Amino acid sequence: QLQLVESGGGLVQPGGSLRLSCAASGFTLDRYAVAWFRQAPGKEREGVSCISAMGNYRNDADSVLGRFAISRDNAKNTVYLQMNSLKPEDTAVYYCAAHRVWDDSMCAMHEYGMNYWGKGTPVTVSS
């Protein structure tokens, strides 16, 4: 079965850190760029960070720049999102998604064109 599974979400205090994981099964992730999205209650889903297939290109939303870091370990078929200095406004369900690429020069953070989606992991930032 081809799927992405997120893990690592939870409750954290403001200023704290979490590391999310996105594990692929049933397909080889190194042929896919991967993006993290989030959806807060009552808001539209937004792109957070993305990484190219081999990890040489990355992009972050302005709202998380300098606080979040996306990385990947293709040997483990997994992409990570290290989240530091968390704020209450980071509270959301976080999703990973993958789209097929043919080089390592780009990644995308728009929902259109994603081939696979995970079911999400919730992150709550609260004291």
Sequence-ordered SSE layout with sheet pairings:
Layout: E1 3-7, E2 10-12, E3 18-25, E4 32-39, E5 46-51, E6 58-60, E7 68-73, E8 78-83, E9 92-100, E10 116-117, E11 121-125
Parallel strand pairs: 2-11
Antiparallel strand pairs: 1-3, 3-8, 4-5, 4-9, 5-6, 7-8, 9-10, 9-11
Describe the structure.
The chain has 127 residues and is an all-beta fold. The strands form two sheets. Strands 2, 4, 5, 6, 9, 10 and 11 form a seven-stranded mixed beta sheet that branches. A four-stranded antiparallel beta sheet has the order 1-3-8-7, with no helix packed on it. β5 and β6 form a beta hairpin. The chain is globular and about 45 Å long. It contains no helices and eleven strands.
